[in-house]
Design brief:
heterodimer; A: mainly alpha; B: mainly alpha; 7 helices; about 75% helix
Chain lengths: ~475, ~230
């Protein structure tokens, strides 16, 4: 396991160094691809092997099942996006900047993988801040005025939001220092142990600040304002990484702090706060999905919605809610990557981001068009795909918990999203012929392969919730709730 | 939390420094000249460095001396230098479009202070540490946070946004020196370094903004909506 861990954390840095030292676009893209495959192979077994946390480097880093699971989701998206990037980035005619792009891309993956393994609330904050700094340049990579605007909004809104998380972390450290003395290591475990002795007021204030801070990065409404811009203006592989991997990583912070405050047992406030933010995110997502024109913005608001669902899952809590939310993480990572890849292909071919310009997709993309359509059905939570199962168990957790109203509202909103999302796709697939025939470049099979690789597991996971996975999820859930198996 | 009751002299010096830093954030709030923001921020950083050194001296945390030196270097010298360089390139002297007049924003700022004071007072009573210095540190920490957000929301120039963000972090830094001087040094070091990287990023972005959007005012950032 140590070997896997070291490989996961070293290989992306190798890709960064390689891309920067040998400034050859071809070399950089293949190196990044190979690294992403290796990282995926090394990260895949981590959540299943980490029965008990294993610590590294003075306890600053560790592997536990939860961190391993988030790292697995990240590495899946990194792999898919790296395959896709080979085909997609060649279309952008920015060959000169490609080594820089891949260096940033691998660096971005590295910061997210690092954040998943950090065992210290302070260092976690730094890791999350690093993800922002690196990904800003990926969002602004195309250098158009819109991309710069999106990058600027991204860094300002997210950095401002995340300072709230720092304030919350400082307050929690202070609360702990009143019990433990002025100097101690702020690991998750220590926080969890000290939480019940902490002053509840400091604890609650700290948690709410952290929730809003990392919630900004997760894209929970009403702090989501950067998300649609950043997701729609970056190149498609970057959008997939932002949506499929980064949001999960930030959510990890909220979940870890939620476990801390749960250990203190101070009642309903933390979970209700999470549920309210979650419902509001799904609501905002619904509003903007129904009346959306931009194809990538549609996907971005769908991310807001799904992050809301994740928040609801963790907010409802219980083994069912947590397991559903964890399953939802991977399902959403796969599915949203698929959706952004399809959107990227379509955008290139039709030369527009606006959905009214995109018509008769199947005519242009007989095969990958079908994959994209299947992905659209999946992302609305329809069976037989993985998201159906995970959303269903989150709903079940909601119906059996104290926040019944939220589950009912969520169900209604999901139905509206289903109708709204698929009506956009209906128009894009079966609408009137476009007046001008699309004359964008031919999309290479590099851009179609990852769509297959995303859809097949999604289908399998919808039909079969593997027993091994469920075991991992129950383990994590009991660890978070603080009980035993 | 500082162990042992503080030397009264130390307590009054700490209070003086915290209050002076808070007043400097009001200088940033009340002025419309970008250079004033920068100078106020620079002086504030020097004060915070002084505070770290004093806390290190009185509380026997020798590593805080290092933090103080680095704070002076990074926040007191390098950051203002970088921001000044950006300013010189931009040829923007002051905020052109004000959402709130400086006088109004000062009043809003004063309301923020009162709110922070009430909050800080309640927290410190709840934990049973109603010492003045704790209340003061919490108040200033929350105030600088709120004023920073106020600056972010009522100013339009990119440089004001950067400095607003820095003010947010300065507040946390100031508060944490008094409340948790024993926080592991690694974290403080990396936070300092992180800030430097952040400003470098901002510098690059500002240049691109100017090149692509043609202005560094956020009023021009209106293409992406809905």
């Amino acid at each position: 396991m140590t070997l896997c861990f070291i490989v996961v954390l070293i290989m992306p840095l190798v890709a960064v160094a390689g891309a920067l030292l040998i400034r050859s676009p071809r070399f950089a893209e293949y190196l990044n691809l190979i690294v992403s495959i290796v990282v995926f192979l090394a990260a895949a077994p981590l959540p299943f092997m980490a029965h008990a946390p294993v610590y590294f480097w003075h306890q600053y880093l560790f592997i536990d099942a939860l961190g391993g699971w988030v790292a697995l989701c990240t590495s899946v998206v990194y792999l898919l996006a790296s395959i896709y990037a080979v085909g997609y980035m060649r279309l952008l005619a920015k060959t000169k900047h490609l080594p820089g792009f891949y260096a940033l891309f691998a660096g971005f993956a590295w910061t997210m993988l690092l954040a998943a393994f950090v065992n210290n609330a302070g260092v976690f904050w730094i890791a999350i801040e690093l993800t922002t700094l690196v990904s800003t340049f990926l969002v602004g990579f195309e250098r158009a005025a819109e991309s710069m605007e999106a990058a600027w909004k991204y860094i300002i809104v997210v950095s401002a939001g995340i300072t709230l998380a720092l304030l919350g972390t400082v307050l929690l450290y202070w609360g702990g220092s009143l019990v433990l003395g002025p100097s101690y290591d702020m690991t998750w475990q220590v926080l969890q142990d000290v939480a019940q002795h902490m002053n509840p007021m400091v604890l609650k204030l700290g948690f709410l600040l952290v929730l809003v801070g990392y919630g900004t990065k997760v894209g929970l409404a009403p702090m989501h304002t950067w998300l649609p811009d950043a997701h729609s203006e970056g190149p498609a592989p970057v959008s997939a990484m932002l949506s499929g991997a980064l949001l999960n990583t930030a959510m990890l912070g909220i979940v870890r702090f939620l476990a801390v405050i749960d250990a203190a047992g101070i009642g309903w406030l933390p979970h209700t706060a999470l549920v309210v933010l979650g419902i509001f995110s799904v609501f905002v997502g619904t509003l903007f999905i129904v009346r959306q024109e931009g194809v990538k913005r549609l996907m971005a608001y769908s991310s807001v919605e799904h992050m809301g669902i994740l928040a609801l899952g963790f907010g409802f809590g219980g083994v069912l809610g947590i397991a559903g939310a964890l399953y939802h993480m991977l399902n959403h990572s796969l599915n949203k990557s698929l959706m952004f890849f399809g959107a990227g292909n379509v955008m290139r071919r039709y030369g527009s981001k606006e959905m009214p310009a995109i018509r008769r997709v199947l005519h242009e993309f007989p095969v990958s068009g079908l994959l994209w359509l299947a992905g659209a059905v999946a992302i609305t939570g329809a069976p037989p795909f993985g998201l159906f199962l995970s959303e269903f168990s989150i709903l079940r957790a909601g119906f059996s918990g104290p926040n019944l109203w939220a589950a009912v509202v969520m169900l209604v909103l999901l139905i509206i999203i289903f109708i709204g999302f698929l009506s956009h796709f209906g128009a894009m697939y079966f609408g009137r012929q476009p007046e001008v025939a699309p004359k964008g470049p031919v999309i290479s099979s590099w851009c179609v392969l990852p769509m297959w690789l995303a859809l097949i597991p999604l289908l399998v996971m919808g039909l079969w919730w593997a027993h091994g996975l469920m075991q991992v999820f129950t383990g994590i859930a009991y660890e978070l709730i603080g009980g035993t198996l | 939390m500082l162990v042992a009751p503080l030397d009264p002299l130390a307590a009054s010096i700490f209070s003086l420094i915290t209050i002076a830093s808070m007043l400097l954030s009001f200088v940033m709030l009340g002025s419309r000249w970008l250079k004033d923001y920068m100078y106020a921020f620079g002086i504030q950083s020097w004060l915070i460095a002084l505070l770290s050194a004093l806390v290190g001296y009185y509380g026997h945390y020798p590593e805080l001396y290092l933090i103080a030196v680095l704070t002076v270097l990074f926040r007191g010298l390098l950051l203002p230098y970088l921001v000044l360089r950006i300013l010189r390139r931009l040829h923007v002297g002051r905020e052109l479009h004000l959402v709130l007049q400086p006088s109004t924003s000062l009043i809003v700022g004063a309301i923020c202070v009162i709110f922070s004071l009430v909050l800080a007072f309640r927290i410190s009573t709840a934990i049973g540490y109603p010492e003045k210095i704790v209340v003061l540190a919490l108040t200033v920490m929350f105030t600088m946070k709120l004023v920073g957000f106020l600056i972010l929301s009522i100013r339009h120039e990119a440089v004001s946004h950067i400095l607003g963000l820095m003010l947010l972090e300065n507040g946390i830094f100031l508060g944490s020196q008094i409340l948790i001087p024993g926080m592991p040094m690694l974290i403080e070091l990396v936070v300092l370094f992180d800030l430097l990287v952040a400003v470098a990023c901002f510098g690059v972005l500002v240049r691109y903004l100017l090149a692509r959007v043609g202005s560094t005012s956020s009023l021009e950032l209106n293409r992406l909506i809905g």
